[in-house]
Amino acid sequence: LGLPVSLSVPLIGLVGRLADQKGWDLIADLLPRWLRQEEAQWVILGTGDSEFQKMLEMHAADCPNKIAVRLTFSDELAHKIEAGSDIFLMPSRYEPCGLNQLYSLKYGTVPVVRSTGGLADTIRDASEENLQAGQANGFSFDAYDVFELEEALRRACALYRTDKPRWERLVVTGMSQDWSWDASASHYERLYESMIARKRPTTG
Q1: Phi and psi of 25, rounded to 5°?
Q2: What's the pLDDT at 96?
Q3: What backbone torsions phi and psi does residue 125 show, to the nearest 5 degrees?
Q4: Cα separation of 7 and 161, whole Å?
Q5: SS3 of 12, please?
Q6: Which residues have CB under 8 Å from 198's CB, separation 6+?
Q7: DSSP tally for the chain: helices H, then strands E
Q8: Of the candidates 105, 85, 87, 104, which has an alpha carbon nearest to the alpha carbon of residue 3?
Q9: What is the C-alpha separation between 102 and 92, in angstroms, rounded?
């Protein structure tokens, strides 16, 4: 996509509709500041609100070494971005399920998400406690607020830059998790068996 390659600079990927529901009002607030001040690159794929499309075209023209934009949709390119980014950003206002965070986990790309709906169900924040327990697989924030988004993104970028062993463990944890229907079916099977066992009459 034409960005210069630097292993010390995190690449932040976004794929999907350019709409408020996907958090683009927050991103529109955050992005100009990050392009001016932060050592990070952005790659963005999607279509949607004309306001956001025009904003992205302007940023791509002004900062060609920091942001690459494709205002279209390609399933092949979407998966390349999910696989090739270091961080995958999903600051959704609401997200009933969400699949892109699961794709990014399998590709070894660390999600930064707003903790809502399916994103809250699948992403364990990289707090100190969760990192030490080996349970963290991404970064999350609670309030739909640009300051919380920025804080979560800063934490992710800081860990990427300053603690590669921990970052690699975070990546491995995400890649090793099983979100398939086989795992869900096995979980529900065990749940039903335990419920049936509790209801069986006891003999005296």
Answers
A1: -65, -35
A2: 84
A3: -65, 145
A4: 9
A5: strand
A6: none
A7: 9, 6
A8: 85
A9: 15
| pTM of this structure | 0.86
If you compute the radius of gyration of the chain from its CA atoms, what whole number of angstroms results? 19
Q: Give the start-to-end residue ranges of the domains of the chain.
A: 11-178
Give 70's strand partners.
45
Q: How does pLDDT run along the chain (204 residues), one tens digit per residue?
A: 889 999 999 999 999 999 999 999 999 999 999 999 999 999 999 999 999 999 999 999 999 999 999 999 999 999 999 999 999 999 999 988 778 999 999 999 999 999 999 999 999 999 999 999 999 999 999 999 999 999 999 999 999 999 999 999 999 999 998 866 555 445 445 656 666 766 655 555
C-alpha closest to that of 170 among 115, 109, 114:
109
The three-state (H, E, C) secondary structure of 31-55, written as one string: HHHHHHHCCCEEEEECCECHHHHHH
Torsion angle of C-alpha atoms 139, 143, 149, 150, degrees rounded to 10: -120
DSSP 134: T
Q: What is the CATH number of domain 11-178?
A: 3.40.50.2000
Tokens at 182, concatenated: 């086989």
Using DSSP's 3-state secondary structure scheme, residue 123 falls into coil
- CA dist 20 and 24 (Å) reads 5
The predicted pLDDT at position 202 comes to 55
Determine the Cα–Cα distance for residues 131 and 123; give it in Å rounded to an integer.
Answer: 13
